[in-house]
Design goal:
alpha+beta; Beta-Lactamase; seven-stranded mixed β-sheet; six-stranded antiparallel β-sheet; 28 strands; about 40% helix; histidine kinase
Length: about 850
């Protein structure tokens, strides 16, 4: 019998590769034929033991062994090198990491030669792993692996790819920077240039431009970003019919250059074999629901846009387009105002404006010339007084007629000037009436018709009506623009901050939940406890900061309750005094018997404490903080801006005798992130949060201050006729299913895997049975298949449908199903979530335990009543 040739491989798998997954199987194949390491069976025991440990680990680990840095890694690491796997397995690193070898080789050699560990966060590497070059980011730790003789056998690299997070943070910062920069740029052309330059540079695009539609629907451009520079370029661009049709519907289109639109995940198939085709992303720019332009970003080479890249392009395009149109409108307004002012002064007719008493408010030079008087002799004087200055043989100006006229009229008169000459004047007089049809002023337009003596007097008052309207219109526009700026600023912070808050709260939820679970686990030393507590405190500070931003933008999910203001403030008095210190006296003057108020008590406590801390920082040495309140009826409040509307309120007043604020600081003190304190001493959200809380609660806000006179803040809080309710506390660690043989069953639905996992873990730790669903449709299928949960815990904002829609769907099958809606941020009205209990992200263990226990309790009480009724019958 012939003996089979010895290939180095046994029929049975090598023991240390038994649990090695796909990479372990490859190591047992002929893949390592010709590898500098030889066959796995011939490896040194130390290498076998190390690989036996590395292969099953879920972390991304690569081992570079020997002086040639032969690469060995596990299944978790393989996706991070893309198309380099599996050819890189068992081969010297220089063969497959050639494009970054100048960067990687010194790191590996440094660890191998010195034995010292190299670690870095978000370390950048340039790599070609998917057919094109890209810069990626990793958290890395490179450690020397010592052999039995003390020499270094290899370098063990534990890595975690952070590319997506780094790109997300950097591009979100870009959106914030653009949102902050554009309001200060008044040239729409500069806004366009900055937008395409920043987006092109951030995304590494080949070309970026904005093409606007003309009156015939053709798209023309004026400038383009190309190769790192913005250059002027005029001409038309071609947009295909299919692409244009999709853009008119408001849809973003991705397409291969010179090809039909394709989806991002099929784009690679549309590329030419040499990879020279381009990916083009078109974002529609709408004006009044009509396609007015296209924002185009073009990438060269093998490139697929991630959903986050598309999101950044869309948001930046919308933001830039909004500000381009806004600045164009503002420029048109300024031009119109300047034109009207020029018309007034340069008009060939004399124009004068009087108030309802007939006193001149404004005149132009031509009017003075026609009347033969100096401007200073007219301004501020009445028509009757002006008549006295004219020669006696001039015609009377019919003072009483002017002030009693109800309709415009014309008259022709002659005046004798100081030099004895006669001028014939045709005057058009327009009575200006207010909303009550009372006379508010007179507009005179005078025309010198001396050359046509005996025919008709000059037209005088025609343009004066225009002047009055112009003055009124300009004043109204300026007031409207001021309110518009404030409204858009708040809306912008709401949109940007709200979107960031949703994602940020989704990140904070698993962080806080995981930390709380860790804190409940036994640890080996106090240092671990302190680190966990410090991390929890930092996460809670982040939660508070996001809450303050949402409160300013009036998007915070408030929990209004009926509150007795005197009890709330008196309960805080010791806390306030400790916060202020012994040198500042706290005075509380809140009379008994004030009506109850409807407010979120926790937010109000935070607001009062913020005002107290501001007062402390403004008082140099000794001083006082006074907190007072009174009931107040606002009869004629406009309800615009921070002023309260008509209604009954409790006015809370916080006064200090600190240094006060100058007028320019007072005008900006409620702007978000504006602070006069040093770095690290304030977020700049305190006053803006208090104002946002007052306005979102249906009240009002006012602040008065002057240098050396201290500061006074008034907050109008809506009253409530209901009584204060004392909520019953919930036992966080209590048995979630008392009196039953099995724990209650909770269905957790969230399309964010990490959030869903940690919420489920927290509930299991509380003693509940938990079933997880990754989408609303999955949850509906489970219930249709017979799942009968005791309570539903669902996220609100999900891709398929909202949490409230899912709850209504499941209640068609389970009408009594308790529901807890979890949300990081929502712009939906409260009516859309009415009837469901809500829990804001991020939340603590106590929060979710209380909410779930309450939901189950609310369901069990009716069941117990029915059960007792059945026994009684």
């Amino acid at each position: 019998m012939d003996t089979p040739p010895n290939t180095g491989f046994s029929a049975a798998p090598l023991r240390f590769l038994a649990n090695g997954g796909a990479v372990g199987d490859l190591l047992q194949s002929s893949l390592l034929d010709g590898s500098p390491l030889g066959l796995p069976s011939d490896w040194p025991d130390s290498l076998k033991a190390l690989m036996g440990t590395i292969l099953p680990v879920q972390a991304q680990i690569v081992l570079f062994w020997g002086p040639e840095f032969v690469a060995l890694y596990n299944d978790a690491y393989a996706p991070s090198i893309g198309e380099k796997h599996p050819r890189a397995l068992g081969r010297p690193a220089i063969e497959n990491w050639r494009e970054l070898w100048d960067d990687l080789e010194p790191l590996l050699r440094g660890v191998r030669e010195t034995g010292q560990t190299f670690a870095a966060k978000d370390r950048a590497f340039y790599i070609e792993r998917h057919g094109y070059g890209e810069t990626v980011y990793f958290d890395v730790s490179y450690s020397a692996v010592h052999q039995n003789d003390g020499s270094v056998g290899g370098v063990l690299c534990i890595v975690t790819e952070t590319t997506e997070r780094v790109h997300f943070e950097r591009r979100q910062a870009l959106l914030l920077e653009l949102g902050q920069a554009f309001p200060s740029i008044h040239d729409p052309e500069q806004i366009e240039a900055d937008l395409i330059r920043r987006i092109g540079g951030e995304l590494g695009a080949a070309r970026v431009h904005i093409a606007e539609a003309d009156e015939v629907g053709e798209f023309g451009l004026r400038r383009e970003y190309r190769q790192g520079e913005v250059t002027a370029r005029s001409g038309l661009i071609s947009v295909g019919d299919d692409t244009c049709s999709a853009l008119r519907q408001g849809a973003t289109v991705q397409a291969a250059a010179n090809a039909d639109p394709v989806l991002a995940n099929s784009y690679a198939g549309a590329l030419q074999p040499d990879g020279t085709a381009s990916l083009v992303v078109h974002v529609p720019l709408m004006r009044h629901d009509t396609l007015a332009g296209v924002f185009t970003v073009e990438f060269e080479g093998l490139r697929v846009c991630s959903p986050h890249d598309i999101h950044i392009i869309e948001e930046a395009a919308k933001l830039g387009w909004q500000w381009i149109n806004h600045m164009r409108s503002e420029a048109a307004l300024h031009a119109s105002s300047a034109q009207l002012a020029g018309m007034f002064e340069q008009a060939g007719a004399g124009i004068a404006l009087c108030d309802h008493r007939g006193v001149f408010q404004q005149v132009n030079d031509r009017y003075c010339e026609i009347m033969g008087l100096q401007r200073q002799a007219i301004a501020g004087r009445s028509i009757l007084e002006l008549q006295k200055d004219l020669p006696a043989n001039s015609q009377p100006m019919f003072y009483e007629t002017f002030l009693t006229a109800e309709a415009p009229f014309e008259l022709t008169q002659h005046h004798v000037l100081a030099d004895g000459s006669v001028v014939w004047v045709q005057t058009h007089v327009t009575p200006l009436l207010d909303a009550q049809q009372h006379l508010s002023g007179l507009l005179f337009v005078c025309v010198d018709i001396t050359a046509r003596v005996g025919a008709e007097h000059q037209l005088i008052e025609l343009n004066e009506s225009l002047e009055q309207r112009v003055a009124t219109m300009v004043a109204e526009r300026e007031a409207a623009i001021s309110l518009l700026h404030e409204s858009r600023k708040i809306e912008m912070v709401g949109q940007l901050g709200g979107g960031i808050a949703h994602d940020f709260n989704n990140l904070l939820t698993p962080i806080m939940t995981s930390l709380e679970l860790l804190r409940r686990q036994p640890v080996s030393n106090d240092r671990s406890h302190r680190l966990i507590d410090a991390a929890l405190q930092a996460a809670d500070r982040a939660r508070i900061l996001v809450g303050r931003l949402l409160t300013f933008a009036r998007r915070q999910t408030l929990k209004p309750q009926v509150v007795a203001l005197d009890s709330l403030v008196n309960d805080m008095r010791d806390l306030i005094q400790r916060s202020l210190g012994p040198t500042i006296e706290v005075i509380v003057e809140i009379p008994p018997g004030l009506p109850n108020i409807l407010i979120d008590p926790h937010q109000l406590e935070l607001g009062v404490l913020n005002l107290a801390v501001n007062a402390r920082d403004a008082i140099a040495e000794r001083g006082y903080l006074k907190i007072s309140a009174c009931s107040e009826v606002v009869a004629d409040g406009p309800g615009l801006g921070p002023a309260p509307g008509q209604g009954c309120y409790v006015r809370l007043t916080v006064t200090d005798n600190g240094s006060g604020m100058s007028e320019d600081i007072l005008q900006r003190c409620v702007e978000p992130f504006y602070s006069t304190k040093g770095v690290g001493k304030g977020t700049g959200l305190g006053l803006s949060m208090v104002q946002g809380l007052a306005l979102q609660s249906g009240g009002g806000f006012d602040i008065q201050s002057a240098p050396g006179l201290g500061t006074r803040v008034d907050i109008w809080l809506p009253i409530s006729s209901a009584d204060v309710q004392t909520p019953a506390g919930a036992d966080v660690d209590a048995d979630p299913a008392p009196g039953t043989d099995h724990p209650f069953h909770v269905l957790v639905v969230d399309d964010e895997e990490l959030v869903r996992y940690t919420v489920a873990l927290q509930l299991r730790d509380l003693g509940y049975r938990v079933t997880e669903a990754a989408s609303p449709s999955a949850a509906e299928q489970m219930v249709s298949a017979g799942l009968r949960p005791d309570v539903l815990v669902t996220d609100q904002l999900m891709a398929e449908k909202s949490g409230t829609q899912l709850a209504l769907s499941l209640r068609e099958v389970l009408p009594a199903l308790p529901v807890l809606i979890v949300t990081g941020y929502t712009s939906e009205s409260s009516k859309q979530i009415a009837g469901f209990e809500m829990l804001a992200k991020p939340f603590s263990r106590a929060d979710i335990a209380t909410k779930v226990a309450q939901a189950i309790s609310d369901r069990r009480v009716p069941a117990l009543i029915r059960e007792q009724a059945g026994h009684a019958s």
